[in-house]
Amino acid sequence: MRLFHRLVRYAAVSVISTSVSLTVLAALVATGATSAGWANVIATAIGTVPSFELNRRWVWKKDGPRSWLGQIGPFAVLSFAELGFSTVAVSMAAGWAARAGLGSTGRTVAALVANVATFGSLWVVQYLLLDRILFRSPGCTNKPTLLRRGAEESSRLAA
Hints:
elongated; 5 helices; 83% helix; mainly alpha
């Protein structure tokens, strides 16, 4: 039941941060204030802040001091790796919509769909990384699979 509640909270955080990002993305693309790719960078950077804080405090119940190297840095790297994938998708979708003559609304919808599809496909991967590595409890003996396999291999070779 604990996993279910955590997943529900994680989904709620995703809805909040995605709503923030998509609002910024739509406003920037619809007004032509910047290219679709740069609009996606700006929107993702803005949406990353509530995502980090809500995931850390509400989903994984971390209330101590933030660690730049242990939490903020890796979360930013993860977020901006996802950003790289989504920016390519958003740029391609907006370019396709423009070439197809879909106008401002069609271009905006294509950019939003590409953004949601990319981040949606990475949603499970991000949850596992946050749960197993980034926000894992210090006393947790449930090591991530790769670390566990490495430790088992080291033990086997030492024997």
